[in-house]
Amino acid sequence: MKPSIRVIVNADDYGYFACVSRGILACHRDGLVTATGVMANGPRFDETVAWLAQAPELDLGVHLNLSLGRPLTAALAAAPGLRDGAFDGKFAALAALASGRWPLDRVAAEWRAQIERCRAAGLRLCFLNSHEHVHMWPALWRVARALGDEFGIPHLRRVRPEWQGMQGWLRNLALGLVSMRVPDAAEPRFLGLAASGRLDEAAVRRALGGLAAGGVYELMCHPGDDDATELDAPHLRTYHAWTLERQTLCAPGLRAWCAEQGIVPCGYRDLDPGRW
User: Fold this and answer.
1) What average pLDDT does the segment 132-138 reach?
2) Membrane among the record's keywords (predicted)?
3) CA–CA distance, 102 with 95 (Å, rounded to integer)
């Protein structure tokens, strides 16, 4: 029998917005999502984390954050490089790191606090990744890897560029350069960057078509329910099509196509049987 192709369908951004969190849970219940990364500094954290009790088969990780919302630690909140006490996007974060305004020990303390908040809520954590992929900065990769070792969290997303024409060329160039300085890790091969934020059925088929039998992959996604009263930031609306992704990942035809291709949605727990 031909070996199956295992794909972890991993939804980013759980816990920050209630409508996004509801959409992720719908995609787990009715669609292909098998894992989600939790944003521990989200203003809806306490409310949304309680909903995860409804989804015991959903694998959970921490979506480490330095670019959206407010820091959990007073030390980082007091550091320069924030706007009105809140993170000001990935470029501001990386500039603050490069200039030394955010010492790495403060960043490590902030990410440790985010992990500890998730653990205190009773979440079983099996992976780490980060909002806007900032952990791919080599110094931050080392921080994230050390925290994973400290807390017994085995998996750390290794993002790779995906070239499709000139779309996202600057992001791909930056990721390509930094990934050369990040150790190659035995992690599921990362997919979904090319259509990040707007993953339709054609993009999923492009990403998953022709994968190697017996391989293990991670498909990043950003599903949700688009509530304009909650998701009102212009830069978020430019990047994301939450409802499109939810509809895509819940489409019966896509699930049937995956079965035809020998693609089996799985979780991190399937890679580490007995651990979770």
Assistant:
1) 91
2) no
3) 9
Closest to 240 (Cα-Cα) out of 210, 220, 265: 220
On whether the CB atoms of residues 265 and 54 are closer than 8 A, the answer is no
Q: What is the mean pLDDT of the chain?
A: 90
CA distance 232 to 228: 5
Sign of CA dihedral 170, 163, 195, 126: negative
- Right CATH for 5-271 from 3.30.1330.10, 3.40.50.150, 3.90.1150.10, 3.20.20.370: 3.20.20.370
225 touches 244 (CB < 8 A): no
Q: 17-27, pLDDT tens digit by residue? A: 999 999 999 99
137: β partners: none
Rounded to whole angstroms, the maximal C-alpha distance in the chain is 59
Structure tokens given for 96: 């603050």
Query: Using CA atoms, how far apart are residues 201 and 223, in angstroms rounded to an integer?
Result: 13
Q: What's at 63, amino acid-wise?
A: H
What are the domain boundaries of the chain? 5-271
- Rounded mean pLDDT, 139-167: 84
Q: pTM for the whole thing? A: 0.91
CB–CB of 127/37 below 8 Å? yes
| Residue 77 contacts residue 55 (beta carbons within 8 Å) | no
Residue matched to tokens 């603050």: 96
Q: Residue 191: what are its φ and ψ, rounded to 5°?
A: -135, 155
206-230: pLDDT as tens digits: 999 989 999 999 999 999 998 888 8
